[in-house]
Amino acid sequence: MTEVDIDKENAAIAKAYKELLKVSYQTLTVADKKLIRQAFDVAVDAHKNQRRKSGEAYIFHPIAVAKIVAQEIGLDATCIAAALLHDVVEDNPDYTLADIEEKFGKTVARIVDGLTKISSLSKEADVSTQAENFRKMLLTLNDDVRVIIIKIADRLHNMQTMDSMRSDKQEKIASETLYIYAPLAHRIGLYNIKSDLEDLGLKYTEPEVYHEIHNKIKESKEEQDAYIKAFTKVIEDSLDKEGLSYDIKGRPKSIYSIRRKMLKQGVSFDEVYDKFAVRIIYKSDFANEKFLAWKIYSIVTDHFIPNPIRLRDWISSPKSTGYEALHITVMGPKGRWVEVQIRSERMNEIAEKGYAAHYKYKEGHAEDALDTWIDKLQEALESNETNAVDFVEQFKPNLYSKEIYVFSPKGDLKSLPKGATPLDFAFSIHTEIGMKTRGAKVNGKLVPLSHELQSGDQVEILTSENIRPNSNWLDYATTARARSKIKSSLKDEKKEVAVEGKEILRRKLKQLKINLDEKSINEMVVFFKLKTSLDLFYRVGIGSIDNPMLKDFASSRSGVIMSYIKSKIRKPTVVQNIDKDEITAKYDSLVFGKEEEKLDYKLSACCNPIPGDDVFGFLTINEGIKVHKKNCPNALSLQSNYAYRIMQAKWIDSSQQEFAAQITLSGIDNLGLVNNITKVISSNMHVNMKSISFQSDDGVFSGKINVVVKNNTMLKKLMENLKKINGIDKVIRV
Questions:
Q1: 503 carries an active-site annotation
Q2: 292-307 confidence digits (pLDDT tens)
Q3: Looking at the chain, which terminus has fewer C-beta neighbours within 10 angstroms, N or C?
Q4: Cα 202 vs. chain centroid, distance in angstroms?
């Protein structure tokens, strides 16, 4: 580079720096400016020999990121300094974290450390690594949520300047942006940045689609501006009459959201009806905000007919990101639907700046929305039983989910993801309440735990000390928090059964003259084709390994020839890690439909499902039931064209499946008989009573009981105990 070029570049760097101070959303004090200047000097020095792929000096990148942080997200001087320094430690060995801490203090150092950790994560392309990185990234929230916010700004600038990269690199970074960063920006309330990230993501993942929509928006801009002008003219006079101070802007919807509408509704660009929104931003003091919003609403709807289904009132109950606004869709001129967003200047700032505006308006004395958000994230992170991909899949719906608002009996408002059930509500109040949920009332009526809650419902949870979560609860719970707590409770319960099972096994083996020691446990695990000793004890505990099976085992041990052969055959099959702490979910059989029946099936060749995959059954004409993975390439077309031939299907661990059985009883009626029968059933562990009916006819008693049991052994045991009841004559399984 010639000296002239270097001078030019230095002048450009100085100009970019000055601009950064000018655009800051927060007012910067003298001390703030000093801190930012110091960070700028260190960054210039650290990156002095670096250039980006495009050839420009690297320092432009940290300045641009700091500018996004200062202007678009509106964070303070600490964050601006951290954004300037975000690549220093990673890119220049002369600067250590200790240096940063010494010069800029603990907070800046902590944020820079978090950002360095994220960058050093492996950059492999496969989904599971991406997911693992994502999880680690969220774990850095422990340190400081600002890490994530600056990371989003960093990603936005990288997406804006990707043109000189290889196309495979562009695609990888863009898909990761759509998969992870856009949902995160949405969740933090950075809606403008979310839209930019989505549009840029689309630009590199589906360039033709992006450019086609982009050009069409450009072509229709003039016509659109004229339309918005005509639309606003109609309302302006009425708004002026009321003496309101306001600003009306037309805003085209993002390319990505237009594309999403086209796909979702199966329509072309021209058929997407609300390609733009009209925003009315009004001046108001805090006390009159609500009143004025509804006043403007009534003026707009005086002139244009609203679509009643599409009223969104986020002023009475703001989104959990703090977003407040009234959204209405009205029938505008020429029979076109127009979305109108009504916000005060304060609401508009919150919509555009997210939490930064909250800080400005709350001035630290109200409950901090950011803290509650971090708490929610922490919960999801602490349940680390799931693997990373599941975690992201669980986390994403919770990120993007539409929210519903429900009330507690006392009238407190709770926000839950759409599709949530009373069980989710119970766990959202407190884990203890969730664990002890016996039932729920919605708007005063008893409902099943699987009932889908709607916005505005009032939910009361009924609890009981002797209730424990059962495996059905996983079918009813939708939030990550509820599911992880239920899973860990079920695991603990299985361990308790296993402890009991171990004692039962010790007693039963004693009768067979076998000691329960490491050697015999090892042999039994191999003999019963299990994975761990815990599996063995659990299966004895629930009775799926019963006396005859243990006798078979004992006889296989005796016999000299047998033991000789066994020593030859069985030696190599020493179980690896027999004391591993798990009860394997052996997904060894498939069941279909609501009744979970076992039916004949074939695995389809197009997606080759394996045990444990999410699957569904498809009823073919000649080949019976074919099983497909839910994400099979053909799944969408099968589900949309032949919905009536789709069957629910899921893999189950045969040792943990439950079966329904009916028992009939007869005998002589006497006082307290019914009480004795129900006592016996409820004291039989692992037996669940579904329905019961009795009748007494001239002193003769007959009854029918439907129970759910894990296996035949349990049913026999129950029937034996029922026979012992005084007055019972016959107990028969139907």
A1: no
A2: 999 999 999 999 998 8
A3: C
A4: 23
